[in-house]
């Protein structure tokens, strides 16, 4: 398992922040945010599935893609329940990326 994926899945904001802070440059952060597990899920997919709005906000502010599909063709915005803060954040990010 990938530590950033696990921290995002559990909603551990402080650990996610620590891991991102440990990255020594923007390229390293980008690679971390784009890393995928065996199902093609990024850290943002994991945070979205757990509806961890604070983690989602942090990942998006660091450049995570809200439109990247996993192996099942799902984007992070499709994973949280309708009407949740997590869903609203991701839908807004998806709309912003499209414009």
From TrEMBL:
Q: Know the name of this protein?
A: Uncharacterized protein
A single GO BP term for this record reads: positive regulation of protein catabolic process
Q: Check the record and name the Gene3D superfamilies matching this protein.
A: Ankyrin repeat-containing domain
Keyword Repeat assigned: yes
Write down the membrane topology: Peripheral membrane protein
Show the InterPro entries listed in the entry: Ankyrin-SOCS_box_domain, Ankyrin_rpt, Ankyrin_rpt-contain_sf
> Which stretch is the leader sequence?
none
Subcellular locations according to the entry: Cell membrane
Annotated organism of origin: Pisum sativum
Per the similarity annotation, which family is this? Belongs to the ankyrin SOCS box (ASB) family.
Taxonomy, superkingdom: Eukaryota
GO CC terms: plasma membrane
The record's listing under SMART domains reads: ANK
The record's ANK repeats, renumbered to this chain, cover 1-31, 39-71
Provide the alphabetized UniProt keywords.
Answer: ANK repeat, Repeat
**Which Pfam families is this protein grouped with?**
Ank_2
Q: Which PANTHER family match?
A: ANK_REP_REGION DOMAIN-CONTAINING PROTEIN (PTHR24136:SF15), SOWAH (DROSOPHILA) HOMOLOG (PTHR24136)
């Amino acid at each position: 398992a990938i530590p950033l994926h696990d921290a995002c899945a559990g909603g551990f904001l402080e650990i996610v922040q620590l891991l991102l802070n440990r990255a020594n440059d923007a390229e390293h952060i980008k690679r971390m945010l784009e890393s995928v597990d065996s199902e093609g899920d990024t850290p943002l997919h994991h945070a979205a599935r757990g509806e961890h709005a604070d983690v989602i906000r942090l990942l998006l502010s660091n450049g995570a893609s809200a439109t990247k599909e996993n192996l099942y063709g799902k984007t992070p915005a499709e994973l949280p329940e309708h009407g949740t803060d997590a869903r609203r954040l991701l839908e807004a990010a998806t709309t912003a990326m499209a414009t």
